[in-house]
Amino acid sequence: MTESITAPTAIEARAFRDTLGHFASGITVVSGIEGGDPVGFTCQSFASVSIEPPLVSFTVMRTSTTYPRIAATGSFAVNVLAHDQHAVSDQFARSGTDKWAGIAWQPAASGNPIIDDTLMWVDCRLWAEYEAGDHLIVVGEVVEMSPIDGHGGEPLLYFKGAYRHLREAQEG
């Protein structure tokens, strides 16, 4: 017989964050255009939701100052960063700086910024938003995406508070 796990009476925020840090996630930059200028932020909570219709989601802090600027346009792109794009992730995670300085990008058909050399990207029409504690769950309908033959390389991963890379399994 296995022992049951007893839950603590209260979940401490730092312990919760550290525990969930044991789940590896990819790193993305959510981007949009506001008044002709690119805007964006780093996001690690991105997932596919539905195939029919093609839906994806991400979560963002309700206190974000960038997301409302993107949401007001009704569309956004999600750029999945490649293993060598640590600096891009760090740059878009900072507040109060020119996040696009030195970042090469091309517009999707919608005009949303697609960052050069990413692993893959999707361009979306805003489908829905849901309040979830201190975050918003944002769902987008994919209207354009990177070509399948353009998906080369490895993803930039985040695990236990640090960037990580995939490693080939060693045969033994």
Description:
There is one protein chain. With 172 residues, the chain is mainly beta. It has one domain (24-161): Electron Transport, Fmn-binding Protein, Chain A (Pnp Oxidase, Chain A, Roll), CATH 2.30.110.10. Helix content is 12%, strand content 41%. The strands form three sheets. It has a seven-stranded antiparallel sheet with strand order 3-2-6-9-10-5-4. A three-stranded antiparallel sheet has the order 1-11-12, with no helix packed on it. A hairpin with a 5-residue loop joins strand 7 (105-107) and strand 8 (113-115). The two termini are 34 Å apart. The mean pLDDT is 90.
Topology record:
Blueprint: H1 13-20, E1 25-26, E2 28-34, E3 37-43, E4 46-50, E5 55-61, H2 67-71, E6 75-80, H3 86-93, E7 105-107, E8 113-115, E9 120-132, E10 135-145, E11 157-159, E12 162-164
Keywords:
7-stranded antiparallel beta sheet; mainly beta; 172 residues; Pnp Oxidase, Chain A
